[in-house]
Design a protein that fits this description.
heterodimer; A: mainly alpha; Serine Threonine Protein Phosphatase 5, Tetratricopeptide repeat; 2 domains; 6 helices; 0% strand; flat; B: alpha/beta; Rossmann fold; 6-stranded mixed β-sheet; 10 helices; globular
């Protein structure tokens, strides 16, 4: 009995050391960092598309992280790519998502949404 | 039962002594003692500004910019999308390092709603060649400033120096080939890899942000130099 308890105690101590080393990252980014760099270096439409795909892949796999959340700025990054491609509706959709997930971004995102809407109204006049 | 209980307490005590025994009796600087403002202001969001480039490589600015967003977010802060922020600042006519540095940090709260701004400066981004060897240098300093008080909340600088190997000096031909190979090997990709190493070293001293499990729990963490 005593041996058994010692064994359990040793196990607990051992576990407390090892569970720290098998951690997942706070957020899942996939290849975002590498593709961002490639897009900056090559400036080609292909590299930009690859960057967009890496952002989408990261957004679709938040379960590969301890937070289980999409990383800060990722929805905004995707929204901004849509904005540059003149897809205003999609841009607003992703800016809204960023705003909802991270209240810290709300002020800035709302500012962007208002800007896009104001531009659209001007164009429709 | 109480015997096992006391056995448990003894084990825990021994474990604690074992874990704390490594530190010297001299009080070491901790995250809390080095950066008390961080724990008072508790910034939640960081606006990373385009880097200030003091290196000899004009491309360093664009390339280094791609390395900062991820590590600061992984420390638990809300990090504003860097590409978007850089483009907006550009459109507003704020692209020059001197303009950025002289702007009051409170302006960034008005425009972005950020709690703190991060200034990064690239001091070195080069390879120095000698006849028999070549060495890569990346040196970065970072400074986090409050947008409420204009006070510096955290600052640190780090560098890496990488020996890219010595040339084969058996013949002149060998030397030339070796120099050419080194030049190819030190294409900009390597700089970015080493910049990430510098970032990891820098960020190690930064108190954790609100999305980190370590938030407000790392005040007593010693600032190890490495």
């Amino acid at each position: 009995m005593k041996f058994f308890l010692h064994f359990v105690l040793f196990g607990i101590i051992l576990l407390s050391f090892t569970n720290c080393s098998t951690h997942k990252p706070l957020y899942y980014y996939g290849d975002y960092s590498e593709e961002y760099y490639t897009a900056k270096r090559e400036l080609t439409p292909e590299a930009k598309l690859q960057l967009q795909h890496s952002i989408e892949e990261a957004i679709n796999n938040p379960n590969n992280s301890i937070s289980q959340r999409v990383a800060p700025g990722m929805y905004a990054n995707l929204g901004y790519i849509y904005l540059k491609n003149a897809n205003n509706a999609k841009a607003i959709e992703y800016f809204e998502k960023e705003k909802q997930l991270y209240p810290e971004s709300a002020y800035f995102m709302q500012r962007m949404i208002n800007k896009v809407k104001a531009l659209e109204e001007k164009e429709n006049e | 039962m109480s015997r096992y209980h006391s056995c448990f307490i003894t084990s825990i005590t021994l474990l604690t002594i074992f874990l704390t025994g490594c530190s010297s009796s001299q009080p070491q600087p901790t995250k809390g003692s080095a950066y008390p403002q961080m724990y008072q202001e508790k910034p939640r969001s960081i606006l990373i500004l385009p880097p200030i480039n003091e290196s000899t490589d004009t491309e360093a600015k664009d390339y280094y910019m791609t390395t900062t967003e991820v590590p600061f977010a992984l420390m638990g802060y809300y990090v504003f999308p860097t590409e978007m922020v850089a483009d907006i600042l550009n459109q507003e006519g704020i692209y020059d390092a001197s303009i950025l540095q002289n702007m009051p940090a409170t302006k960034f709260y008005e425009y972005f709603g950020a709690d703190a701004v991060l200034f990064t400066t690239i001091h070195k981004w080069d390879v120095s060649y000698t006849v028999v060897a070549s060495t890569l240098h990346v040196a970065i300093s970072a400074k986090l400033v409050s947008t409420k008080t204009n006070k510096v909340l955290w600052e640190h600088s780090k560098s890496v120096t990488v020996d890219l190997g010595s040339a084969n000096t058996n013949s002149l031909e060998g030397l030339l080939i070796s120099v050419v190979l080194t030049a190819i090997n030190t294409a900009s990709a390597d700089y970015v890899e080493y910049a990430k190493v510098v970032n990891d070293k820098l960020i190690y001293t930064l108190p954790a942000g609100p999305y980190s499990p370590m938030y407000l729990k790392d005040e007593d963490m010693p600032l190890r130099q490495y």
